[in-house]
Write a structure and sequence with these properties.
43% of the residues lie in helices and 15% in strands. It is an alpha/beta fold and 655 residues long. It has a 6-stranded parallel beta sheet with strand order 7-12-11-8-10-9, with helices on both faces. Strand 9, helix 11 and strand 10 form a beta-alpha-beta unit. The longest helix has 23 residues.
């Protein structure tokens, strides 16, 4: 096989090349190709194919050259040798030529990739096609020999060739081909959309998780990073369950996720005739004539599934109608929600297979709720698929982290100290009475922590800083999310950003006036800044988001992990995400009786964020500050308390 490829260079590279010559272009192209190959070797699912490619190049089976448009390599910025032509021949002299829009890339070739078209000509069919094949073959030969006007063609640079050939394994590559084919077969076996035109197939980490779940008796929790494809993995498990004549029961924590799962289920299984009963979110037909009881009974007929919000499923009426048994396959999205007192009754439901989904299934500050979940689902399916795994596998976007610190103003600091002193007195009284406040906070203790957290979240210095950050960093066409604490802060921040000169500033929250879905559509199309409150944390996907500014985050590590995941979702043209985090820097005397200072928790969050970023040095000063304060930042991310719905904080504040 002979390949002619076009290297992709940045505008900066092109500008430098315009003043240089072909040799400089070859050096830069070689470096870029070598780096791309190293990324292939380090990416889940691509390492074996990369070794096979390297082995074929080393053996001379594949030869490759690179091409530029123009007499000088480098050409004009964004101008590529972009022709898609191929010629296949056999030992009898018959040839096939193809020409079209399809790239030899995953989006071009995959069943869930782009919509592409290709024209095909066979030399034996008629004279017209025979001449077309000859023309395309002559064109290829002239380009290959660098004889076509306006195109510069060179051999693969030594830098690139050496990087590729060094990975060759002459003895094992045929083995790898067999293993790759087996992995593709396994993916097809699990795919929720197998046999469907344009159907998706699971990634290697998803197949591995499903295989491990099956080996554990189809019980367990997928602890996978936000944005790594948990929903599609669950759809694959559902397809397997439908093939076993099971009735999936899918539980979700919100009306928004109910709608998204409805669309996903109908999209994946609508062609197979899936009948879906939706419960909650305004859907009440399940009550009519005890319809849910008939629907959830085992038996023959069209495939059926039940989709319900956790709130609806937890009701006495729902639990009284659902028919339990081994025929039920439970799928619990954001499974940590089932540990709440109001939802934990669902953990007594009799089912067969069980699958929980969450990036953070452990409930902060609630060991009893966590134990209930783990017992019911029989633990986490190993290995967890964390943030670093997801970035390495290409499921999430690498990110740069920028931390900004502010201080409490004098009156805010006074309110902080007052709330802290009151907490200490109440906590000491609780301990003296034989209580164990460190394990289960009373309502008054939790209320004090929430009030104190509000002081940190609403620190006034954050508002002006938000305007300055956007004024300095925002560029037209970018898509920013700014996380605020409450309506007052949102209004002030929105005003500050607008005054900084940034246009297209939107708000998104549950109490907003207007169409929330349309707001996100316009934002996705035009870019700009969305100023949001907590309702973006679970379930809202805006993959095109490039930047996030976090002004308020709770004591619960889950919240900031989900927010980070929102920004790291993959999107075309998005090579790097940017996180800006505003924290209130702790002072030496802000500790409390439990060693769980919210101010120190802010610092812990920032260090954790920075540890996984492409610029880990961004938090070097914060690590030194933590060491000087004498605390273990890692342990603080494990503390906190669970808020199971968006109204919890308001209810606690009004108590």
């Amino acid at each position: 096989m002979r390949l002619i490829c076009s290297p992709i260079l940045s505008e900066g590279d092109h500008e430098a090349l315009r003043e240089g010559y072909t040799e400089r272009a070859e050096i830069e192209a070689g470096r870029a190709i070598a780096e791309s190959f190293r990324e292939l070797m380090a990416t889940e699912g691509l390492a074996k194919p990369a070794v096979v490619l390297a082995s074929l190049v080393s053996a001379g089976v594949i030869d490759c050259k690179i091409a530029w448009v123009g007499n000088e390599a480098g050409g004009r910025p964004k101008r590529l040798f972009h022709d898609k032509v191929g010629i296949l021949g056999d030992s009898f002299g018959d040839r096939v030529a193809f020409k079209g829009s399809m790239n030899e890339t995953w989006p071009g070739l995959a069943r869930d990739g782009n919509l592409e078209s290709v024209d095909v000509f066979a030399s034996w069919r008629d004279e017209g096609e025979r001449l077309r094949v000859i023309d395309e073959a002559d064109y290829f030969e002239k380009v290959w020999e660098d004889e076509w006007p306006g195109i510069t063609v060179r051999a693969l640079p030594d830098t690139a060739r050496n990087a590729i050939v060094s990975a060759a394994d002459a003895g094992r590559w045929p083995e790898f081909v067999d293993e790759i084919c087996l992995e593709l077969d396994q993916a097809a076996r699990w795919s929720a959309e197998a046999g469907k035109s344009g159907g998706r197939t699971p990634r290697p980490h998803q197949v591995a998780a499903l295989e491990a779940w099956e080996a554990r008796g189809r019980r367990g929790i997928f602890k996978h990073a936000t944005g790594s494809g948990k929903t599609f993995t669950a759809l694959c498990a559902i397809r397997d369950g439908l093939g076993r004549d099971e009735i999936p029961l899918i539980l979700v924590p919100s009306d928004l996720l109910l709608k998204q799962w409805d669309e996903e289920l109908r999209g994946a299984f609508g062609d197979a005739g899936l009948q879906l009963m939706v419960c909650g979110g305004g859907h009440a037909r399940w009550r009519d004539g005890a319809r849910l009881r008939t629907w959830s009974r085992p038996g023959e007929g069209a495939p059926r599934a039940v989709l319900a919000t956790i709130q609806t499923a937890s009701s006495d009426e729902f639990r009284g109608l659902i028919v339990g048994g081994q025929h039920l396959l439970m799928i619990a999205d954001e499974v940590h929600r089932l540990g709440a007192t109001s939802a934990s009754q669902l953990l007594a439901l009799d089912t067969g297979a069980r699958l929980g989904l969450s990036a953070t299934p452990e409930r902060a500050g609630d060991p009893e709720g966590t134990a209930l979940i783990m017992d019911y689902f029989e633990g986490i399916v190993p290995p967890p698929f964390g943030l670093e795994d997801a970035i390495k596998a290409g499921a999430l976007t690498p990110y740069a982290y920028n931390v900004h610190t502010v201080a409490l103003q004098d009156d805010e600091r006074a309110d902080w100290i007052k709330a802290t002193d009151e907490f200490r007195r109440l906590y000491a009284r609780s301990m003296a009475g034989g209580g164990d406040g460190s394990d289960s906070l009373s309502a008054r203790l939790k209320l004090l922590l929430i009030r104190r957290a509000r002081i940190v979240k609403g620190a006034r210095a954050k508002v002006a800083l938000a305007g300055r950050i956007l004024a300095d960093a925002y560029r037209s066409g970018q898509r920013w999310i700014v996380y605020c604490d409450d309506q007052d802060q949102l209004a002030e921040v929105k005003r500050s950003i607008a005054q900084s000169g940034v246009g297209d500033v939107y708000e998104y929250h549950s109490a907003m006036i207007g169409d929330r879905a349309r707001t996100l559509e316009v934002f996705g199309e035009r870019g700009g800044v969305v100023v949001s409150i907590r309702c973006l944390d679970e379930g809202v996907d805006i993959p095109s988001v490039t930047h996030a500014l976090i002004l308020a985050s709770s004591k619960n590590p889950r919240e900031f992990i989900q927010r980070r995941g929102r920004v790291l979702r993959r999107s075309p043209g998005k090579a790097l995400a940017h996180l800006h985090d505003v924290i209130v820097a702790p002072e030496m005397d802000d500790d409390d009786a439990m060693g769980g200072s919210i101010l120190k928790g802010e610092l812990a969050r920032a260090i954790e964020f920075g540890s996984h970023a492409v610029n880990p040095g961004a938090v070097a000063d914060l690590r030194r500050l933590a060491a000087a304060a004498g605390f273990d930042w890692a342990s603080l991310t494990e503390n906190g308390f669970e808020l199971d719905n968006e109204t919890d904080e308001m209810e606690m504040t009004d108590a």
